[in-house]
Design brief:
The chain is mainly beta and about 700 residues long. It has one domain: Maltoporin, Chain A (Beta Barrel). It is built from five helices and 41 strands. The chain has a 22-stranded antiparallel β-barrel. The longest helix is centred in the middle third of the chain and has 6 residues. The N terminus is likely disordered.
Length: about 700
């Protein structure tokens, strides 16, 4: 749920476009953010790395389908569209999360205060509805440790509140590889009630063979004031994907021969995934004098069935694959999740300067009725067969915290402490292969402190330090090493110590953020081995991450703006360890993490009715597994172009979008599947692609 800023803080809230067709505005060099400080503050005054992406950047010439469209402009982030809607985006922050084979881990995802991450740390970026987004905030570094088990940071999306005159709109997009998107929206305020209603359908044949998908999203939000001292928002959202095809990864030879190719087993077993996700939440805020009470609550369901390519037989033999007997090749679960957050924001007026104490507690729980089936029935493959798994998995977290934000003269201090408890409980009902029931509890106190000094009004410097940790996810705990049955309850959480030092400058119409950081991690979670398609994990000693981030935004003139995001990251193992693939030496690079990333954009708006931009992206080579001996995904550069046009005729607003991605038609590996057990590490990115769209909006 969204943290509402009190009315007395409204001056800090960035200007909002009154319509979902938000056109290019002058660059906002000092946006207000909530993530990190938990109350609205200009990002320039916060002593850590935090970036905000506004509505214009989210919607201007973008497709509104994947968060990868906009998150690449944030330093420190690597966001890859796998071209595989069955496995979602690949997102890493300062090297955390790069190992995830599906979804997002190591980074806390939040949408309107509702976690898009389960208590064990696994998240789904697909639940972000970009069509309704007002802004996205990205927090990295030590301050993120105050959000729990997510050492990599926090990505938080806030939807629009529904303001201005009521209006309705429709939009259609088409593009390469059979892509189409149809979008309907209604938004505005009536009788002091703000509303946002949104529905969309996206279809694609996919760039690669066997990668077709259909995604249906709906969203509804109501805002009103029960009285003069309170606010209430009700939010509903849903995501449905039926029969989304999964092309799996590619071997290097297959990728080079045909980037559109698909693994043969994907066809043989008709690998696919269906998702039905629904959630309901509320945000309540009440003012008690200078103090503010924030209460957020949510509940929802998520049903998933996934058909995997775990072979029926071992190799070319007629010997049944024991991996199909260890949980099966069809995964199905029905999840119920809920949670609540209660926060108290108390200004201390007796203290010098401005001191705010924030205290609260966050509670989250997800409960999965999980089943597994063999992915064959007799000679028929790719169907639900005999049951091989029946269990109830419950993950819950309870995290009290306290935080102090203190600004006095030229100094800003933020300090906090969070005590996280995450419990994973397994109730095994499939007892023919033994009882795998058990409980594992992880506890950790994560302190954080940040100090900023204003050398001048235009130049601020800061230092930040904190402790973080990441618990194993349910997927990482699911299988014990080798052929052992049961959960891998021996896994320990990884623990990190993070340091950051940075400068923030505003020079004329240019904003510059620069940061250096060092992160040491104990008990890093890595792949132990893969047997018959089943992956198990282990703790692997120490890792070391050192890096530099630079973000530049500039309003060059009335018509020209530029953005640059540069990251240099040295992420290596700081101790030897052994895996099924052999010894991993100290100094080896963490797989999935490019050493250099660069994003640059030039935007030209010669008139109110048109804007166009060219964006470029560079990523250095990426190792695909821990020994660094397999073929690394090569470095690449790619350029995109977009344009948007808008016309106003009385109550009507019309707009058109044109977009060309990969202008030079480069062939490159868009993402990698780290440590894939079948050596299918590579996922090809599309060649040159085109998109065109048009929409209309009527304002009452």
């Amino acid at each position: 749920m969204k943290f509402f800023a009190p009315a007395r803080l409204a001056l800090f809230v960035p200007s909002l476009c009154l319509t979902p067709i938000c056109f290019a505005e002058p660059l906002e060099l000092d946006p207000s953010v909530i993530t990190g400080s938990r109350s609205a503050s200009p990002s320039f005054d916060l002593p850590y790395s935090v970036d905000s992406i506004n509505q214009a950047q989210i919607s201007d010439g973008q497709l509104g389908i994947n968060a990868s469209e906009v998150l690449s402009r944030v330093p420190g982030l690597v966001v890859q569209n796998r071209q595989n809607y069955a496995q979602d985006l690949q997102i890493s922050s300062r090297g955390f999360g790069a190992r995830s084979a599906f979804g997002v881990r190591g980074i806390k995802l939040i949408a309107d205060g509702i976690p898009a991450s389960t208590p064990d740390g696994q998240g789904q970026a697909a639940t972000f509805n970009l069509d309704t987004a007002e802004r996205i905030e990205v927090l990295r570094g030590p301050a993120a440790t105050l959000y729990g088990s997510n050492a990599g940071g926090v990505i938080q999306m806030f939807s629009r509140d529904g303001e201005g005159p009521p209006r309705i709109g429709a939009e259609t997009l088409i593009g390469s590889d059979g892509m189409s998107k149809n979008h309907l929206t209604a938004e505005g305020a009536a009788d002091d009630v703000g509303f946002v209603l949104d529905a969309s359908r996206m279809d694609t044949d996919g760039y690669r063979d066997h990668s077709a998908a259909r995604r249906d999203q709906t969203f509804a939000k109501l805002n009103f004031k029960p009285d003069e001292d309170s606010k209430l928002a009700l939010i509903y959202s849903s995501l449905e994907q039926n029969g989304t095809q999964d092309p799996l990864g590619q071997s290097w030879e297959a990728y080079k021969a045909d980037p559109r190719s698909v693994a043969p087993n994907a066809i043989t077993y008709n690998t696919r995934k269906s998702i039905d996700h629904q959630q309901l939440g509320l945000n309540y805020e009440r003012y008690f004098g200078d103090a503010t009470l924030q209460v957020n609550a949510y509940t929802g369901t998520r049903s998933v069935i996934q058909y995997l390519a775990i072979p029926k037989y071992i190799g070319n033999t007629q010997t049944l694959n024991p991996a199909n007997a260890r949980g099966g090749g069809v995964v199905q679960f029905d999840r119920k999740f809920y949670g609540t957050n209660v926060h108290w924001i108390q200004p201390i007026t007796s203290a010098p300067g401005e001191l705010i104490i924030i205290s609260g507690v966050d509670f989250d729980q997800s409960r999965d009725n999980r089943h597994g089936y063999q992915n064959y029935n007799g000679a028929q493959l790719g169907v639900k067969g005999e049951m091989r798994r029946d269990e109830v998995d419950t993950a819950r977290s309870l995290d009290p915290f306290v935080q102090a934000n203190w600004a006095i003269e030229d100094w800003t201090l933020q300090a906090g402490l969070r005590y996280s408890t995450m419990e994973m409980d397994v109730d095994d009902h499939f007892l023919s292969n033994g009882d795998a029931s058990g409980t594992k509890r992880y506890k950790k106190a994560t302190p954080s402190m940040s100090v900023m000094y204003a050398f001048t009004p235009e130049l601020h410097g800061y230092v930040s330090a904190g402790k973080g940790f990441e618990t194993p996810t349910q997927a990482e705990l699911a299988y014990a090493p080798g052929n052992q049955e049961g959960f891998n309850f021996g896994l320990k959480p990884s623990e990190s110590t993070q340091y950051e030092m940075g400068l923030k400058a505003q020079v004329y119409n240019t904003r510059i953020n620069a940061a250096v950081f060092q992160i040491t991690t104990e008990d890093e979670l890595v792949v132990a081995g893969s047997v018959g398609g089943r992956t198990s994990y282990q703790n692997a000693g120490r890792t070391l991450r050192r890096g530099f981030e630079l973000g530049v935004e500039s309003q060059l003139s009335e018509h020209w703006t530029t953005t640059l995001a540069y990251t240099r990251l040295q992420a290596t193992y700081d101790s030897d360890f052994s895996s099924s693939k052999g010894t991993v030496d100290k100094g080896n690079y963490l797989p999935g993490v490019p050493q250099t990333t660069l994003f640059a954009e030039v935007n030209w708006k010669p008139a109110d009715w048109v804007s166009t931009a060219v964006e470029g992206m560079y990523r250095s080579k990426v190792y695909v597994e821990d020994t660094n001996s397999k073929k690394a995904a090569p470095a690449y550069s790619v350029f995109n172009w977009r344009a948007r046009f808008e016309q106003n005729v009385e109550h009507w607003t019309f707009h058109q979008t044109l977009r060309l991605d990969n202008l030079l038609d480069r062939q490159y590996v868009g993402s990698v599947i780290v440590a894939d057990g079948n050596d299918r590490f590579y996922e090809a990115a599309p060649g040159r692609s085109w998109y065109a769209g048009a929409g209309a909006q009527y304002s009452f």
